[in-house]
Amino acid sequence: MKTLVIGGTGHVGSEVVKELKKRHADVRVLVRQSGVKSLPGVEVVVGDLLDPVSIEKALQGVEKLYLLNAVTPDELTQGLIAYDLARKLKLSHVVYHSVFRVEHFKDVPHFASKLAIESTIREFDVPFTVLRPNYFFQNDASFKDLLTKMSVYPNPLGPVGISAVDIRDIAEAAAITLTSDQHFGKTYNLNGPAILSGPNAASIWGKLLGREIKYAGENMDAFETQMREKAPSWAAFDIRMMFQGYLERGFVAEDGDIATLTGLIGHAPRAYEDFARETMLEWQKS
User: Fold this and answer.
1) Residue 46 in contact with residue 57, Cβ under 8 Å?
2) Does pLDDT of 208 surpass 70?
3) 83: left (phi > 0), else alpha (psi -120 to 50), else beta?
4) What b/e readout covers 103-140, taking b as 16+ CB neighbours within 10 angstroms?
5) Residues linked to residue 66 through DSSP beta bridges, in sequence order
6) pTM summary value
């Protein structure tokens, strides 16, 4: 059975493709432009999620869909176009990449988009699985200069923290649900094994780097201003609202989440400390 992976060249999607190939799945990846490199044995098709004609063509001959939308101003439209065409073509299974506690963050633009897409998926008759991951460890790999040159951990995770998760665990969960019919109608929270607070993250990096790493704190106006230096204004506001929601409403794993993910992927979820150590070694090579 052929699976179309939307988002298959991104940080998470590329790992999903790797895990699917490990399971000998027949994989097609949607890309926005030709010439994108892919893994051996992976079919590549060019399409635009705002162009239904190209997406319907990409879905021809496909039985399963992994739907991972990028955070964009039109994320909802893109997601619904892909899902509506999957329903039109009577796909046998859609695995949707949503986000943890999505129903509690309706004021965060990209969470609200995901909640609306989830609601649509649950309303119709295409078999589905919803994955709800927490914040990704790998987002912090972009902090090389802040950590190594300025000795600052910038994310406002707060003193309570969040149950951040490794994208490799997300990818395994996605591949497993895509290659089995046992997960129809299921929703899985994907959370890491320990709570990561702002001070704790700074301490972990400090021990690895052999220096004091300061936690930047929770000044959300300053955080948004910093985000605007490297992202569009709408995206900086969106991310600011996400982190503000973490502080106000929490983003910690619910009872049973870790055991459920462990059972699903067959091993304990990866630890942030191990990700940080691996990342530091990669930085040292470059």
Assistant:
1) no
2) yes
3) alpha
4) eebeebbbbbbbbbbbebbeeeebebbbbbbbbbbbeb
5) 5, 95
6) 0.96
